[in-house]
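Please, structure for the following, as tokens.
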Amino acid sequence: MTANPRSTTPSAGRAAATAPRRWFRTALALGAVASLGLVAACGSGEAEPGADNVIESGKAPSYYPAEYKNVIAASKKEGGALTIYSNTDQENWAPIFRDFQKKYPWVKKISANNLDSDEVFQRVLSEQSTGGSPVDVLVSNASQAWADFAGRPGTLLPYESPELAKLPKNATLLPNVYSMSMDPLSIVYNSSLVKEKPTGLKSLADIVSKDQDKFKGKITTRDVTGAFGFSVSHAFTAARPEAWSSLEKLLPLGKAESSSGTQLEKILSGEYLAGFFISAAPAYPKQEQSGGLLSLTFLDDGTVVLPRGVGIAAKAPHEATAKLFTDFVLSAEGQRAVAEGGLTSYRGGIEATDGRHTYQELVKAVGTKNVIDVKYAKVPDAEVKAFTTRWDGLLGR
């Protein structure tokens, strides 16, 4: 069942720097529940993954208020567990959990369910309506769903991170919702089947127009009736209304999917030849693992950047640990781990090296004028309906 982009009511490119990092990510991807310790380099003689991210164990940054020691002390009494509902892949989480547990080693078990963008909020609302939810932290890049959820009373814990003074103003997405990463949307294509590299939406439309029979039913994009698909597609057309002429060439040959993972797997298998508005977050690791079959490119006619929001549930069972985690992913230590996992860090001073990706790197690649930032704000119902009707009216069936 597909959720309306405005509704959250219950319903239901680079090679990895080291072989051990690839092994670690693959191992974690096998399970949705992460209980991580320190991982050795498996006797390879190479450095442990993330060894260059020096972590101050059990210690908050020097610029935190003195009373923050009370948060750390309270976390130690919470049983060493943390539950996260998110739409973030386990491969993306791996370095973050590893380094968070280095910093706060008493947190022995992190449960991170990988849900659809809208389902993150649907599940919490459903659980709250029946007596309570086990969730501590919510992480999703569904901006419309976040705006709806955060606007409801009693859903989020009021919390102002001490990291905010070190971050740009756009780190605060909504009251009590902060940006964990700022992930660009991309074009991903099967390089063995598509020989001409697309450089943007217009470029892809031109390539497709040369051989429509080849590409019929072989182009994928996100379902705009879901919050993620609506947010990125609407943001693009709002910033680039002239792009509808390219969409009129692409959408009749396309099919919608509700998951980036599904899109990437089908492009890799050749079921699809290319897809647009695919998040780089899951695409980076898949590209690394594809042996050169998957290629990723940003759009020179407008690259959408979608922040990945993080907030603490109002009745988080492990409230203090949730605060530690939120502050960690916003810190310099956490942002290096965020970037290592394939998400895009945005905090100043994080280097785009060793497989890490940064917002500053993207801006340098496509230019400031070609970056389209998605705002965490509700779009009026009439505008939602008009957009989805036009989009779906063009989409191939």
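The longest helix spans residues 90-103. Confidence is low (pLDDT under 50) at residues 1-46.
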